[in-house]
Structure formats: C-alpha cells, structure tokens
Amino acid sequence: MNEDTLQVAERDPDERLHPFSRRQFLQGVRSGIIFFAVGEGTTAEAQGRGKKKRPDFNAYLRIGEDGRVTCFTGKIEMGQGAITSLAQTLADELDVSLESVDMVMGDTARCPFDAGTWGSMTTPYFGPVLRAAGAEARAVLIGVAAVRLKVPKDQLAVENGVVFDKTRKDRKVTFAELTEGKRIEKFLEQEPKVKGVGGIQPDRQTNQPDRRPAEGHGQSRVHGRHPLAPHGVRKSIAASVPRCQAQEPRHVSR
Amino acid sequence: MNGTISFKVNEKSVSIAMDRSRPLLWVLRSDLGLTGTKCGCGKGLCGACTVIADEKAMRSCIIPVRSVEGKEVLTIEELEKNGKLHPIQEVFVKHDALQCGFCTPGMILNAYSLLQRNSQPSRQQIIEAMEYNLCRCGAHIRIIRAIESAAQEMKGPR
Q1: How far apart are CA B90 and CA B88, in angstroms?
Q2: Is A169 on the interface with B (CB under 8 A)?
Q3: Cβ of B76 and A252 within 8 Å?
Q4: CA A192, A193, A199, A202 torsion: positive or negative?
Q5: Secondary structure class of A26 (helix, strand, coil)
Q6: A78: chain B residues, CB-CB within 8 Å
Q7: CA angle at residue B115 from B113 to B116, to 5 degrees?
Q8: What are the residues whose beta carbons fall under 8 Å from the beta carbon of B124, sequence distance 6 or more?
Q9: Cβ-based burial of A245 (10 A; exposed 0-12, middle 13-18, buried ≥19)
Q10: What is Dmax (Cα atoms) for chain B?
Q11: At what angle do helices B123-130 and B140-154 cross, to 10 degrees?
Q12: B155: left (phi > 0), else alpha (psi -120 to 50), else beta?
C-alpha cells in the first residue's frame, strides 16, 4: 500500500486496515494473533481498533460530501453548553467554520463509549481526545492534498475546510473532495500535534479571547420553545433517557 | 374525578374531558402541547412550572386543573407577540440572565407577575418576590439585574 495514497474508497478485502501480505495474514490467523472481524465498520467499532494505541479518529468525526463535519461524542448537552464548546474545539483543530459542525451526542449506536457527562470533566478529559482526533484528521488530509496538488505539505494551509497552496491560493482542494463523505483510512505514525489544550482558544492573531456568544442561545430559551431533552438521541432509545421530567408521571401521588 | 374542564389558555378557549384532579402542568404540556412550562421538582418548590392564572402567578405542578375552571391562563409561549419578544424576555437575553434556560420560563412569568403588582420594585423587593424561583446554574445576579432593567423599560403594567 503506497503510503501517500489515501484509502478513502471501500476497503480492499485483502488489505483492510493492515498492510499484510496474504501469507503473513494466514500465518497470523493460524497462530491466533490476527482475529478475523466480520461486519460493517461502524464509527463505534472503529474506536480502539487496530495496532495503534490512539483511538481511530473516525470514531469522533466524519466529513461529508457536502463539506459538513459531523462530530460524534458520548457527552451530552444539558444546558451546560458542551454542544457548542465541543463543536468549537473540533472546528479549531480541523480549521473548519463552527457553523459547519453538526453534533451527534449520546447516541449509543453511533457515538464512542462515554461513562457520562458530569464533574466538569468534558473539557479537560474529552477535549484533548477530540483535539487529537481533529488534529490527526487534518494532518492526514493535508498529506493527501499535498500528493494531489503536487505541493509540499508545509506549503499548504487550511481555512474553512479548504486546503490551499500558500503561494498560490487557486491551487486548492476541499476536505469534502478529499473524503467524499467516507471514512479516512489513513493514519499518522507519530502523535498528531494539537493546536491547543482544553476548550475555546484565544484568537491566534490578536490573542484576545473569543467572546462571541453562542448564536441565539438566550433567544431560543426565553420563549420556552427550545427543546431541553438531551440532543441527538435516537427516537428508539429516547424513552429510556432522562425524560421522566418531560412526561407526565403514570402515578399521581396525593 | 372525570368530567370536563373549560378554561382559556393564551386567549384561546379549551374544553376537554379528563380527570379534573390532574395537575395543570401536565394538561398544558401533554394535552395542549405547551412545553415551555417545565417540571422541575413536581412539588411547587422550584418555580419552573410557574404560569399566570387570572393575573396571579401559580405553580402549575401542584394545582389540579379543576381549579382553573373558567379562568384565563397565561403561559410563557404567549409573551412573544408577532415575533416580537416581551420586554422582560428582551432583558433576559440582553443581560444573559440564564445558562441552561430551564428555570427561565418560570423566572420570566414570576417577574411578569411581580411587575403587574408593583411596577417599580426595589432590588430587595425583587429578591423577595423571586425568592422561591430556583436556578441551579446560578444566574441569579443577572436575573435580578434583568428584572431591574425590565422595570425601567416598562414603567407601568403592560
């Protein structure tokens, strides 16, 4: 497998994620080292797969054909603002606009495992994981763009999901064009370099904190129409989620 | 306990057959789809369920629907008119008087009721009137500031 080729297409059944030769593969199976995993690769399955110690960043993000970025997290929104802060964090690492990030939170079929949202732990413990995922995805996509544009990697920059040649801005390719909405089957050997730690970063030009309030936050809550149940929960499991206060109790105590 | 209840909600007349001992909160939320009014404690202690009935602030989670027979009930949804927020809603947004927003409908309606009774309350009077509306996120100081600001803007009952 050519290191510079981004395997975004459906997996070659002989190669999968592991660049073994057929012979190595069969020897591995015989000796019990390689387990033959059957089934579709879902984002949840992707987490922790492979011989890397880092989780597969595809578990946390997907870049669609339309350029929209979907962030998958086990954390949930209960009014504390994680739906915004995590989107800001990922947008910061990937160099996409905040508005292009969609959040899927707490969906046990699609999101990585999470022990729960409590203790003010989302930012310090999940933040770095999400940053590492975004940083690795960005670095991988730059690497592939470098091959496609025939430009050295360090001559490239990213803005709003567009990778471009710093010396010639018309030489560019978008994240959407690179991923075609599929999983990114390429990973870094080294640790990805994250841009920051924790949540929102100061504006790197002015070093001033980004004080933009989340658009429409107060607006939607003063007329009571904002849905306050956990976000991104599929209808099939919505009943079991803490919605007991949203529905009338079956008993009436007197 | 079954029967028919007739009353007005947000200037619309409703008449429904039901168990008349059901808490008003659930009639509003489940039967009428007015989910702006929240269930916080279910015991009348937190104020998240506050609605206005015949110009009086009421804790809808502990009053049976039969007690609003023939009355006019106002919920948070009614404050906004033709896409324009009520001054109290405006100041809550302006002063960032909320974080998660769960207590907010109750806060706003209780403040609405206060300003109907006393259009120029002192800071202490605002605190006393809002005493039993609880905010777990801790936006109390901004809420008081917002209500002071609303009193200034409104200068008289709406």
Answers
A1: 5
A2: no
A3: no
A4: negative
A5: helix
A6: 100
A7: 65
A8: none
A9: middle
A10: 46
A11: 120
A12: left
Residue type, A3: E
Query: Which chain A residues contact residue B38 at CB under 8 A?
Result: 224, 228, 245
> What is the CA angle A43-A18-A69, rounded to 5?
30
Distance from C-alpha of B31 to C-alpha of B18, rounded to nearest angstrom: 10
Rounded distance, CA A11 to CA A182, Å? 11
Closest residue, chain B, to A228 (C-alpha): B102
Q: Is the ipTM of this complex over 0.85?
A: no
pLDDT tens digits for range A66-98? 999 999 999 998 878 888 889 989 999 999 998
Amino acid at A77: E
In 10 A of CB A139, how many CB atoms? 17
**pLDDT tens profile A167-195:** 999 999 999 999 999 999 999 998 889 98
Burial A119-137 (b: 16+ CB within 10 A, else e): eeebbeebbebbbbbbbbb
Report CA B32 to chain centroid distance, whole Å: 16
Instruction: Quote the tokens at residue B74.
Output: 């106002």
Distance between CA atoms of residues A246 and A47, nearest Å: 33
Ranges assigned E (strand) in B20-134: 50-53, 56-59, 72-74
Contact A5, A184 (CB under 8 A): no
Contacts of B102 in chain A (CB under 8 A): 79, 228
CA distance A250 to chain B (A): 11
**What is the C-alpha separation between B108 and B88, in angstroms, rounded?**
7
Nearest to B15 by CA among B6, B24, B3: B6
Hey, what are A7's tokens? 């395997």
Closest by CA position to B37, among listed B104, B119, B94: B104
d(CA A161, CA A175): 5
Minimal C-alpha gap between A202 and chain B (Å): 22
Enumerate the residues of chain A whose CB falls inside 8 A of the CB of residue B147: none
Q: Are A192 and A139 in contact (CB under 8 A)?
A: yes
Interface check B45 vs A, CB under 8 A: no
The answer to whether residues B1 and B21 touch, using CB atoms and an 8 Å cutoff, is: yes
The one-letter amino acid code at B118 reads: N
User: Is pLDDT larger for residue A92 or for residue A250?
Assistant: A92
